[in-house]
UniProtKB/TrEMBL annotation:
It comes from Ranatra chinensis. It catalyses: alpha,alpha-trehalose + H2O = alpha-D-glucose + beta-D-glucose. InterPro entries: 6-hairpin_glycosidase_sf, 6hp_glycosidase-like_sf, Glyco_hydro_37. It is an enzyme of class 3 (hydrolase). Belongs to the glycosyl hydrolase 37 family. Its EC number is 3.2.1.28. Pfam families: Trehalase. GO terms for molecular function: alpha,alpha-trehalase activity. This is Trehalase. Keywords: Glycosidase, Hydrolase. It comes from the Eukaryota. The keyword Hydrolase applies. SUPFAM superfamilies: Six-hairpin glycosidases (SSF48208). The keyword Hydrolase applies.
Amino acid sequence: MYRSARGVLMNLVLMVRQYKHLPKANRVYFLGRTDAPLLTPIADDYVRFTSDWDLLRNILTTLQVEFDYWIKVRTSMLQTRYHVFLAALDAKEKIPRAETYAEDWMAKVNEYGVLDENFIARRFWGRTGTDRRAIGVYLNSLMELNARLLAKYCLRFEMVGQARLYDRMSRELRKTVETLLFDTKRGRWADYDVTSGHVPGCSPGCVAPLWTGTGRGDTEGLPEGLGECVEVWRSGGGGAGPELQGLVAAGLSCCPQLRPIGLDLASSWLSSLPSPSRLPLTSAAISLYLLHLYPEVEICSLKITTPNRIITNKLLLSLCLILPFAYNFHSLY
């Protein structure tokens, strides 16, 4: 298992060395679009389970290259009335999405009545046709995790100056998540639109700070704020498809007071699965991760109880989220 994980990790490292980021779905014709910056968390999981620090020393420069790409291309300073925040902005696509090329193309034609090749993909347009420029909770939480891990690695390898730089960026991104992206009215984290404020809805990304360790698990009002989203997630709404169920469950499992909610959601999701012979690969992988997080779950519909020896961890989730068929996940950022 570790040898296979190392092979996957090195393939991703080679891709970042060549393109400075992971292309969408790991495909060359998606070079204009990026996958989430998950390479550093994946490497951290691998090293944590194998203690292969020599490998980490060899690929540390590549991890820094990916983070620097996101800082230079997708991150900027956002000034509000009282504060200045370091924030990673959601992407603006100037070409149709390959997986929905015809739909994106025709949507733009119908909107303007003319062909316009230089347009932004439909999912980043608001109802009025203006650019949303959203600041996502998930993306900024993940960026903070990357900065924190890089600071730890640099300090371990006696790169004190770089460690201080990454630590400062980690603190700035944490301030963004805990201040700008926390909706005090709803009592939970929410994506932030630079033109209209916090984005309403129950995006699974609002539990990402718990999963990455960016947010405080004892934030006042957080359980009440998430309460209204539970029913939405249980029914599969709010964008919580198979690719995001692991993220929601992982985030809720990190907070003791929210773990019962996560257990309830995991039980509902797993009980609604089809027979194993018809289970898609993505759903199967996420199901294993849910069973790992909540070993007390009983899957009545499949007439099985969670084995005590399921060997899986966050590495599995990270790998699943960047597979070519996990398109729905990328709507978060």
